[in-house]
Amino acid sequence: MNNRRTTEILLAFCLIVVTATGYILVTALDRVRFEIESLHSTVRALNEKVSSAPLRAPAPSVPEKREADVPMANAQFFDPDAVSGDRFITSIAADTKNMNYLINNDATLGNALMPRVMDSLGVRAYDDLNKFLPQMAESWSVSPDGLRIRVKLREGILWHDFTDPVTKKEWKDVPVTSEDFKFYVDVVKNPKVDAAPMRTYLSDLDSVRVINDREFEVIWKKRYFLSLDMTLSLSPLPRHLYHAYEGPFDPERFNNDNERNRILVGCGPYRFIKWDKGHRILMTRWEKYYGARYGTMPPIKELAFDVIQHPNTRLQALLSKDLDAAPLTPDQWIHRTNSREFGPDGFLRKFKTSQLVYNYLGFNLSNPLFRDAKTRVALSHLVDRDRIVKDIYYGLAVPVSGPFFPEGPAYDKSIKPYSYSPELAKKLLAEVGWRDEDGDGILERGGQKFKFTLMYPNANETYKRMLPIIKEAMAKAGIQMELLGLEWSVCVQRLEKKSFDMCALGWSGGLNPDPFQLWHSSQADIEGSSNHIRFKNAEADRLIESIRVTFDASERQKLYHRFHRLVHEEQPYIFLFAPADLNALNSRYRNVREFPLGIVDSILWTPKAQQLSL
């Protein structure tokens, strides 16, 4: 089910992070496949908003907003007559590896858990992704040169109460201060902390200067078109959890503090209660949530996230009322939702919305098989996208030709996906020396057979149906492609080590993304980076660097389109599809609203007579 910050993106993997912790999850296909792509929700938020000030002129100063003038973000969508109580049980396709949101970039933590327990300075408007609204921030202002952003926090924001799992000390009523935001930035920028994706996004952020407990200044090294967005997307980091000892901060301890990394301490509307690893994560509403003063206290009291890998098991749990919400696969949408449970008098409703994601087959470019672009383009001609959309996605996806969301300004609609043409593929392969020299039906070049393995998350039922179609087409062209389905955690490990031939995955991003983390050459050889395919291209680097400092939206769009064309021609990914987001929800909930990127569960409520408990 879309989480409360889904609509705020997405949108930084992206990336951030990416972002990217983002990801690299979850989607209509099966949210697990997006877990590395998406990295975490922060990345997505970092990628979405753009400044409109021209580069040649000083950045305009944003008038300071006062608490009395600016309400809490999205407060108008909360029903003032909502009845408090009830539960909300949804599913996650894979468990998270730990609860430390700086060193763990998986989508379960970033997309499902973090938006419930942690707030940021600002968030996207649910109904208009171009609007950035204040959340923890009472006000902010930008210096004339655009390099300094001064932030003032709202009063009375408290960290969740918790007991330190190591010292057993109880922490209660601890205020969130400017020092917690400085701590966040300092820890991310520490090169010994395992936060490479986030560090990439904050590389141009110089420092945070604390003014007092509620005011601080974010200082940037140079102008960057997403500097305001990234500043407002910052969340605090609890010093009293991660630096609860005398002496300097110890990055090794932060990375490997297994006990503290098993709990999640935030300041958002829900408080972490329990993690039954491999089974369920529990949260309860934070009754001291500062948002209650502004009308944004969620009506639902209890949240549960059940780990259910297989989509058919999820659907069965939904039908037996063990789940209140769950994503649907295209096959389920077409063939399993025509039952009485989904009928006019049924207890389930289904929803189809857009999402800022695309999926792809990624080449490991360090493998000699894939080093020339003509070979990669040839393999792209062996993917029958029209057939797959019709037979596997049932029309609930659109083919894409490049690395952006197809409805966003960065995407160049004049560039079409490579057509399905086995004849052209064979011609291109022959031109670069691939021939069947010994008559065994497999192409070879320089003594190397064209044989490789494609890795994919084994919980993804849609991939299990799609990839054999591609494998068959490859075989007819003389290419032996083996399919290897792996547990998601193993996929992540191989991606981080860049230890694979080819991978089937997906990315989430924003309407105005920063391609740096995924595509810049400087990220290609960093372990754990989002450029896991090792893409290096000098012209792509120049375009990415220009995008980052171009503030005029129309000029930036031209650069996006040039980058789109270059990546299309180089084909480091076989770009596949942008799928629809398909979900089911129990019909007992009220105030169900469909926003551009889906339903937000934080505004839902249930009549008293229909409420359930965990």
Features:
single chain; Dipeptide-binding Protein, domain 3; alpha+beta; about 625 residues; 5-stranded mixed β-sheet
What does this structure look like?
The chain is of the alpha+beta class. The chain has a domain at 357-579: Dipeptide-binding Protein, Domain 3 (Dipeptide-binding Protein, domain 3). Helices cover 25% and strands 21% of the residues. The strands form nine sheets. Strands 20-19-21-15-22 form a five-stranded mixed beta sheet, sandwiched between helices. The chain has a four-stranded mixed beta sheet with strand order 1-12-11-10, with helices on one face. The protein has a four-stranded antiparallel beta sheet with strand order 4-5-9-8. Helix 13 links the parallel strand 19 and strand 20 (480-486). Helix 10 (373-380) runs antiparallel to helix 12 (422-431) and helix 16 (538-548) runs antiparallel to helix 17. The two termini are 18 Å apart. The model is unreliable at 1-69 (pLDDT under 50).
